[in-house]
């Protein structure tokens, strides 16, 4: 272990702060991940079924949702972080810190995930939907028994992409004082030229991505027939 | 289930597809009555409107105008919930099977039973019974990706029968299968029609599908029904050129016949065509007995076809003009002959 300490002296001297930043990243990832997952899934399903010609076709709702998602997707995340500050203050009480970061993370990532879900469900063969309608299944039945079931593997695949993207977003949030590995990489690593901290933070993030990818692939495999 | 329970009536059904530039009339003023227990063939080239018309039967496609009556009830007037209940009484099978890839064969057959009120055990039993009916009981735990085309279609048929429907719509269900498998599936459909009294509506562009198992046929072209009637009649005595094109083997080229008519007219002879049942007589015997009554006959053309499980012969005889009445009188009286026609020059 001594050689490790020699390679990363600043990590060792700031170890409590470093370990805490790992937990902060995980906390942001989990909390935003759950919210993005739930809201994004509902939004994605809505985008698919309200489209004209679909089982719950509603041109007005579809247009509104579609345009909102488009607009949100166009805003660069780093700008979004600044833009939602008033809302963050309203919801969380402050615009600084890990919990505060969850607001822009969720607002920034949800439209992305919604589009991913929409794409995954749109890839379900329309013939299956037609057969389900012919069988006398209701729109709710079709959402759960056809779209979500047949699209499960694809949704799992796009979820992995989204989670990994979210890790990157949490690092960006670190640039504006959210805490986490991004924050420490910049404040200690970049600003104070402690490069070993930067490298160490990157390695930990890499490890997270690999683990998620590995377990994610297992899930996808399980869901594919 | 009473006499009218499977009866289908399409009245003045039209379907228009509108986009910004134009309106396409996919189905135009179609009137069809299909009695319970009929095997009804709907034949036509691609784009004729047959699939669109078939989809109006269970309102997968809502007609722009007209009514769709099943057992006397106009389903175009029903609310969503009632419509779904009626849909369970109509089974449908498709060209590309449309089986759920993430479910096993058994689970696929159980899917329509979602609102049937049966317990899971009962659903499973019913599914197994249906799979036995289509000869696939041994593959119930397989996934669709592990099955052949014919097997997939059989699963689809079992699934379509899950709610004990009175009508089964087959939308080009054999178009993606090889001839042998097609025959297999058609035999199954015929068996179901006979055993369960199931009304079957077969949409296809292939004559072979229609020939064996249908009782009635309608021919569609550009959204309209151009000819309809009993299968045997349409095969043996098609009126419309398109019907002839679709159903007849091509042997009896109209141009050839026109040339022959000209030739024989010049010799003061006429051509009479007639159709007879091969089971009751053969051509040789028939000609021999005709010769006793009619002078100087000559066989110009003959052909045999199998339609609706019977063998039919068609023959064209050249006869002296003054003998035409004799010949027609004789063949009309003959028990094995079903139709005869004097072939005229302008056809």
UniProtKB/TrEMBL annotation, chain A:
UniProt GO cellular component terms: plasma membrane
Topological category with respect to the lipid bilayer: Multi-pass membrane protein
Membrane-spanning segments: 26-49, 77-107, 160-179, 199-220
Alphabetical list of InterPro entries matching this protein: AA_ABC_Transporter_Permease, MetI-like, MetI-like_sf
One of the GO BP terms on file: D-methionine transmembrane transport
Residue intervals of the ABC transmembrane type-1 domain: 22-216
CDD domains: TM_PBP2
Domain of life the protein comes from: Bacteria
Protein location: Cell membrane
Keywords, ordered alphabetically: Cell membrane, Membrane, Transmembrane, Transmembrane helix, Transport
Keyword Membrane attributed: yes
Residue runs in coiled coils: none
Family: Belongs to the binding-protein-dependent transport system permease family. CysTW subfamily.
Protein name, per record: ABC transporter, permease protein
Origin organism lineage: Bacteria, Bacillati, Bacillota, Bacilli, Lactobacillales
Gene name in the database record: metI
Automatic annotation (TrEMBL), chain B:
Protein's GO biological process: amino acid transport
GO molecular function: ATP binding; ATP hydrolysis activity
Swiss-Prot/TrEMBL keywords: Amino-acid transport, ATP-binding, Cell membrane, Membrane, Nucleotide-binding, Translocase, Transport
Reactions it catalyzes: ATP + H2O = ADP + phosphate + H(+)
SMART domains recorded: AAA
Record-level GO cellular component terms: plasma membrane
Pfam family, one: ABC_tran
InterPro entries: AAA+_ATPase, ABC_transporter-like_ATP-bd, ABC_transporter-like_CS, MetN_ABC, MetN_ABC_transporter-like, P-loop_NTPase
Domain ABC transporter: 8-247
Sequence similarity: Belongs to the ABC transporter superfamily.
Task of the protein: Part of the ABC transporter FtsEX involved in cellular division. Has ATPase activity. Essential for cell division and viability.
Name assigned to this protein: ABC transporter, ATP-binding protein
Organism name: Limosilactobacillus antri DSM 16041
Organism placement in taxonomy: Bacteria, Bacillati, Bacillota, Bacilli, Lactobacillales
